[in-house]
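SEQUENCE-TO-STRUCTURE ENTRY
===========================

Subject: a protein chain together with a token-level encoding of how that chain folds.

Sequence line: the amino acid chain in single-letter code, read from start to end.

Question of interest: how does this chain fold, as expressed in backbone structure tokens?
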Amino acid sequence: MPEARPSDAAYLDLLARRAPAEAYDEPLARARESGAPPEELTALDSGKQLALRIRAELEGRRRREAELTALIETVHDLAGLRDLDDVLRAIVQRARSLLGTEVAYMTLTDHERGDTYMRVTEGSVSARFQQLRLGMGEGLGGLVAQTARPYVTDDYPADARFRHTGPIDTAVGEEGLIAILGVPLLLGGRDVIGVLYAADRRARVFEREQIALLGSFAAHAAVAIDTARLLSETRDAIDELESANETMQRASDVHDRLTELVLRGGDVTDVAAAVSEVLAGRVEFTEPAAASALPAVERSRSAGYAMRDGGTWVTAVSAGGELLGALVLHGHPVLDPVDQRTFERAAMVTSLLLLARRSAGEAEQRVRGELLDDLLDSTSHDPRLLRDRAARLHADLDAPHVLLSARLEGHAEGHAGGFGGGLPGGDSGNQRGDSGNHAGAEKEESLGRQRLWAAASHLAATRRGLAAARDGGIVLLLPLPDGGSPSRTAREIASELGHSAGAPVTVGASAAVSAPAEQSGAVAASYPEARRCVDALRLLGRSGEGAAAEDFGFIGMLLTDSRDVGSFVRRTLGPVLDYDARRGTDLVATMDAYFACGMSPARAKDELHVHVNTVAQRLERVARLLGDDWQSPERALETQLALRLHRLAGAVGG
């Protein structure tokens, strides 16, 4: 092993102390001053050169280590930023720091205009420079953006490799830049989203390691920019890695929640509630009729994407070309792409739920229809089997029910009148027009019947009843509400069905069926009565209304099979009969005499052997009890019939 020389120790000490380069001249200078022999001076000079090379290698390694550490720290810092502007500023600041330049800046690519524009600067003092735009191939930056390759110059104003333009040279001149290094911000190895620059206001040679360092940084920065850009629309941009993980987790959670809703048979309100929570807004489902009136819904339906409509977002819920409704998101003027896809996915899930509900509803309605058909077609049933079948439909056939017959108005009858007369055979043009009108009328009638059936099915399901199509109309068997009556139920159902069908619907009600499961054949026996009530309403010009036999006065007795005389008398004369019973008066006898004398008080007084004023007072009392119109032709006829039936009942009873 060669013996160590004193000069070696001196240089090792300098290396250990990381002394500046000029310090390495001191051992040789001291040797010269002390009159060292030439061979020692030669050895010292040789040792100096070796030590400087070692120093340069160590410094290079330390610099690369520091640069790599700074690069890692920079990437880590970028990962913690949540806003696109913060990310861009951090990139430019770090680029300036990494390369130790006076100025750093970034241009981004504008694909629509086909050029690049200044986005962020650090160390810049020129307003013109900060607003600069570079066409593809123009200047150093335009060439980098066009070729996707890094370019460097130690003297840009004098460098003829670049296409100089007036605006660019003026801006660079105002900024005073001389040495410029530009590297592309690449995505996927091809898509140049911008250029990152480091520059000095003096001549400078950028070393190969520095170019590679800025290029590596630009690669990480491009990913950070892309991630931040996607999330910046909601001002919730986060770091690249955490952002990707959180976004994936969030999308996965939403997917799991929506899948769970489908599997457990949730409804549109559940979807709206789940998406409202995820998007931190209010989501509501709009039915098809209201949705079709929103212009944004049609745009969304055509494009297949959610559409912004003022301060709301709208996405169509459709399947097979049919509009099933729409989801409307309130409180989110801006949606990022992830949230927009979540909103659109919710619309897809909603359509699946609606189709599933429709299929289930159709299947359930078939079962409801079959059960009601059996009740209408047969007079003998096993109560136990009826209860079991009804229980599966959540219906209780041991409770009081009312049978309703419903007919759609305003379509077939009106159309028959319009087209029944025909036209002369020679007018073929009018015939063609008539044919077209008739086709349109038939289509409208068909739609009306479909809406009527859908509304009736919905009523049956929500009211735990049954519905079936029969004899060109709809038959409903619905529970009778506590305190309700067949008459009131018929009016309510006529109004609801008419509103849903978009045309008048006439509804006739039977008398109450106390327990359909126990009363074998009661439902079948009630159907003719309900139909007769519908026919009576039509004949009396009351189409589009709802009524039961009790609403027709004495005519109602003809509509029922029971011929309930007592109920008719009570409905017509009840208040007067009760008054006589309480007060010991005889208003009924006064009414009998009044009608028997041709409704003449003067003649009735002789029949009753009282003063005419007494007759008038008694008739005023009757008017207060029965109403001022009790003497109208229609009510007078019913009243006289009720009086006669009351007398007959009394005679038979006596």
Observations:
- The longest strand covers residues 191-200.
- Residues 234-241, 412-432 have pLDDT under 50 and may be disordered.
- The longest helix spans residues 38-79.
- The CA atoms of residues 162 and 446 lie 74 Å apart.
